[in-house]
Design a protein that fits this description.
By secondary structure, this protein is α+β, with helices and mostly antiparallel strands. The protein is built from three helices and four strands; from the N terminus they run E-H-E-E-H-E-H.
Length: 112
C-alpha cells in the first residue's frame, strides 16, 4: 500500500470530555485506529463578526483515506460546534509497522 493512504484528521472543541467521548466513539466504530487529545490550546478566530479567543482541546485521529470520509461525516454529525474544524492531512512517511497497524485496525483485522 502507498504511504499516502494513511491520514490524520484533526478537530477541536472547548470541552475535553466531549472531545474525548467523540474520539473514543470514532475509534470504537473503527473509523480511526487511535486518537490523541491535546490541550488546552488557545484559539483565536472570528465568529459571527466578533474576534474571539478561547481555550480548546485538539483531537488527532489516525485513519486511512478509505475511512476518512466516514470519519469526517461522523465528526460533523456528532460535534457540538455549528462549524467544527475538521481537517485531513496526508501522512507522507513514518514507521512502516505503525502505518500497517493503522490500516489493520480500521479494517478490524487486529486488536479485537
Amino acid at each position: 500500500m502507498a504511504l499516502d493512504d494513511v491520514v490524520q484528521v484533526t478537530t477541536t472543541a472547548d470541552d475535553a470530555d466531549v472531545l474525548t467521548a467523540l474520539a473514543r466513539d470514532a475509534v470504537a466504530a473503527r473509523l480511526a485506529a487511535c486518537a490523541q487529545i491535546e490541550g488546552p490550546i488557545t484559539s483565536t478566530y472570528w465568529w459571527q463578526g466578533t474576534l474571539e479567543t478561547a481555550d480548546e482541546w485538539r483531537a488527532t485521529l489516525k485513519t486511512t483515506q478509505a475511512r476518512a470520509d466516514a470519519l469526517e461525516a461522523f465528526l460533523m454529525e456528532h460535534h457540538p460546534y455549528d462549524v467544527p474544524e475538521v481537517l485531513r492531512t496526508p501522512v507522507i512517511g513514518g514507521n512502516p509497522a505503525y502505518l500497517a497497524w493503522v490500516r489493520a485496525e480500521v479494517r478490524g483485522e487486529v486488536g479485537e
